[in-house]
Amino acid sequence: MYWLLDPLLRVPAVADVMGKSRYQKINQYFHTNDYSEALPKTDPTYDPLFRVRPLLDFIKAKSHMHYNLGCEISIDEAMIRMPHDLICSISLLGQKKMDIQEFVKCVEFAARKHKNQRRKDTEQTPYINHPIGVAYILSEEGAITDQKVLQVALLHDTVEDTDATIEEIAMLFGQDVAGLVQEVTDDKSLPKLERKRVQIEVAATTSPRAKLVKLADKLYNLRDLMRCTPLGWSEERVQDYFEWAAKVIRGLRGTNKRLEEELDMILKKRGVYELSIQ
Ligand SMILES: [Mn+2]
């Protein structure tokens, strides 16, 4: 009965991995040895999960924020390990299988939309290298396996820089993806300087999944700037960009350790790290 009633089991990431037998096993583990603080079962506020409730609440709050690490342990093992390990295994186990067809559809859409664009580097790299590179950073360095996040990485500049619309993306890839693309798209009705200021302002209130894409986008762009100065950019403009990026990153922190460490290395090299932590 508890198994059916617990509201935690409505959290998809937990429900996917928490079958009835598992739930009972975990419940048993946390209850067999110590009943010292337990309320009597007849008490109306008796919580069958009282001993693990803080941990479960912690998972519930964080399970949408952590997509990291490849620790493949069973949920039962995980329950007796550190909360962080547990979060990793829950988000890993809870994930649906990758839909390759849907993913390739994104690659094709982005390639078609960006087909006439080039990056500003001296080699005039095809623009599509950038969104693919952002998805690659998320998958390879960020260890992200959330398909929608990777799809959004591929699509993240289509609405801002091509004739693609949010409605079009919603129709082709669903509301979730469209909503996230919207979050990483600047308001084109604002002048350029204002848009940059707004990016700093909204960074902290962005959803965790959109923050991941923003972090990887910044990492890609800053690495590009370290590699070569874009055509027509002065040294001062490059430095301004680093300073601005640092201020945006300040609002994106606490999202992915590995990506943030990579960004920190670059920010320190350019002497703007302080701007990203105040
Ligand atoms: Mn971008």
UniProtKB/TrEMBL annotation:
Keyword terms: Hydrolase, Manganese, Metal-binding
Recorded protein name is: Guanosine-3',5'-bis(diphosphate) 3'-pyrophosphohydrolase MESH1
Task: List, alphabetically, the SMART domains matched.
Answer: HDc
Gene3D superfamilies of this UniProt entry? Hypothetical protein af1432
What this chain does, per the entry, is described as:
ppGpp hydrolyzing enzyme involved in starvation response.
**Keyword Metal-binding attached:** yes
Cofactor dependence is on: Mn(2+)
Please report which protein family the annotation says this sequence is part of: Belongs to the MESH1 family.
